[in-house]
TrEMBL record:
Statement: the UniProt record of this protein carries the keyword RNA-binding: no
Gene symbol of the encoding locus: cmoA
Quaternary structure note: Homodimer.
Gene Ontology molecular function, alphabetical: carboxyl- or carbamoyltransferase activity; S-adenosyl-L-methionine binding
Protein name stated in the entry: Carboxy-S-adenosyl-L-methionine synthase
NCBIfam families, per database record: carboxy-S-adenosyl-L-methionine synthase CmoA
Pfam families documented for this protein: Methyltransf_25 (PF13649)
Organism: Arenicella chitinivorans
């Protein structure tokens, strides 16, 4: 996947809560998420291994909020020579157009991309469902119902991979993590102005929750085994097995 450097907030004015997954974001998204989310590449690197661990021939692998298709590509790498189906869902046409290009080498039996709101998506039976930093954009009140439908769609023994930005209930921990993440962004060549504009733009659009709230929701949706498998600062990835 090729991509431009993310200079969006060097030029764009950021009104509070104005962040959208439009064409300007899609054009720089790979660079944006890699330079903003420590450990994003690590998750993608481990996904083929996870896919092989849970692989079930001819079953379905979802990426909900698939953006440019990075997670679909990583799961496909885990298929090896074996056949299975990938379904990517995203409600941003700018993202999905680029995903189509990035995944154009996959045939129609292997890949389906669906331009849809997750809230309106009916899920087929699946072996693995990836939600890599997507639930955080779903309205809080709708999250439980969505996770209950995700649980219902999985085969017994199937796995949900849920990656999210965390909120911390202890203010000292919250401040510490925010401080290191701020430095991380500066180290990635974002200016202080770019960082503060992005923070304003995603306010109330990306709504993080605590680890405890995520774990409690996953258990109440029915998952028996729920565990973090990767964490970098406030960016965590959980495994939930049915
Ligand atoms: N209601 C919704 N329905 C469908 N899609 C949605 C919805 N809300 C948001 N999205 C989509 O969810 C994606 C979230 S980005 C995921 C990164 C990717 N998983 C990756 O591994 O590269 C994460 C981030 O930007 O932090 C965007 O493409 C939105 O259009
Ligand atoms: O930039 C941030 O602070 C984030 O929380 C990550 C992010 C990455 C891509 C789009 C929106 C938020």
């Amino acid at each position: 996947m090729t991509d431009q450097k993310d200079t969006l907030f060097k030029t764009v004015d950021a009104l509070p809560g104005s962040f959208k997954f439009d064409a300007r974001v899609a054009a720089v998204f790979e660079d944006m998420i890699s330079r903003s989310v420590p450990g994003y590449q690590q998750i993608l690197q481990l996904l083929p291994t996870l896919t092989r661990t849970f692989f079930k021939p001819d079953s379905t692998y979802y990426d909900l909020g698939c953006s440019l298709g990075a997670g679909l590509l990583a799961m496909h790498a885990g298929f090896g020579e074996r056949s299975a189906q990938l379904i990517g869902v995203d409600n941003s046409s700018a993202m999905l157009t680029k995903a189509q290009q990035n995944l154009s080498h996959l045939d129609q039996e292997t890949l389906r991309l669906s331009l849809q709101d997750l809230q309106d998506t009916e899920f087929d039976r699946a072996q693995m469902i990836l939600m890599n930093f997507t639930l955080q954009f779903i309205p809080l009140a709708d999250r439980h119902a969505l996770m209950a439908r995700v649980y219902a769609s999985l085969h017994p023994g199937g796995v949900l991979v849920l990656s999210e930005k965390l909120k911390f209930s202890d203010p000292h921990t919250a401040e510490l993590m925010a401080k290191i993440h701020y430095q991380y962004k500066k180290d990635q060549d974002y200016s202080e102005l770019e960082i503060s504009k992005k923070r304003d733009a995603i306010e109330d659009v990306l709504v993080p929750e605590t680890l405890e709230d995520h774990i409690a929701r996953l258990h109440s949706a029915g998952f028996k085994t729920v565990t973090p498998w990767i964490q970098n600062l406030q960016f965590i990835s959980l495994l939930a097995v049915k």
